[in-house]
Specification:
By secondary structure, the chain is an alpha+beta fold. The chain contains 6 helices and 7 strands, in the order βαααβββαβαββα. The protein binds coenzyme A (COA).
Length: 208
């Protein structure tokens, strides 16, 4: 866990963040997915496998919106959002496409802050419902989403990763914009510092 009171900042990602995001993405897969995905695949995974996708995503406009959480120069986590790609989604549904926090920062509130900021970025763009897909066997993430007010809506899909096929389940929740009295993180470029604990507490016990 990170030291008490350390300052974490949330900001929009820039194209120059692509390598750090790809490295954190792959490092988090290797830390979080042993036992859930084939170990050979995880062992062979390298940041270069994801770099091109992130370079493309971070250069794209207007979607996805990619948010990063950092402590000084160190990237702790990231999230990306975009309109839903699901066939049954109408224009009111936005998707949290990715949410990853590096293992050294787990359980310090960074994921909650990123998830909240992701929902707000979608709500500010006019989406009223959020969805996301998560590996059915990813119990830690499923518990995390459920604590944050997301619920499994019954949809499942097979995700073909070429080396293996995984089953994803869909989660959903209504999106709320920032409301008075709630200390929401600012997510515009170079937003001011905030403490994850301060961001998270208003949500605890009310959702999920
Ligand atoms: C799922 C994930 C994003 C959660 O991120 P996180 O930063 O660890 O999440 P938080 O710290 O905000 O909350 C997680 C837990 O810490 C607790 N917590 C939050 N702030 C805390 C604090 N200051 N002190 C102690 N615990 C805290 C929460 O209650 C929660 O408890 P739980 O693990 O018992 O459910 C992260 O574990 C991750 O990246 N996992 C691997 C990748 C992944 O599965 N991503 C989802 C793909 S769909």
């Amino acid at each position: 866990m990170r030291p008490e009171g350390t300052t974490v900042r949330l900001r929009r990602a820039r194209p120059s963040d692509a390598r750090a995001v790809a490295e954190l993405h792959v490092g988090t897969w290797k830390a979080a997915y042993p036992g859930l995905l084939p170990q050979d695949y995880l062992d062979d995974l390298a940041p270069e496998d994801r770099l091109g996708d992130w370079e493309q995503a971070l250069a794209a406009s207007p979607w996805p919106v990619v948010l990063v959480a950092e402590e000084g120069p160190t990237l702790l986590g990231f999230a990306s959002v975009a309109p839903s790609r699901d066939e049954d989604a109408d224009g009111t549904v936005g998707e949290v496409q990715t949410l990853y926090v590096g293992p050294r920062a787990w359980r310090a509130g960074v994921g909650t802050a990123l998830l909240e900021a992701a929902g707000e970025a979608l709500a500010e763009a006019g989406f009223t419902t959020g969805t996301l897909w998560v590996l059915d066997v990813n119990d830690r993430a499923r518990r995390f989403y459920e604590r944050n007010g997301w619920w499994a809506d019954g949809a499942t899909k097979e995700h073909d990763w070429v080396a293996f096929v995984a089953t994803d389940v869909r989660y959903r929740r209504a999106l709320e914009g920032p409301s008075p009295g709630r200390s929401a993180p600012e997510v515009h470029a170079d937003a001011g510092p905030f403490l994850p604990g301060g961001v998270n507490r208003p949500h605890e016990g009310t959702d999920g």
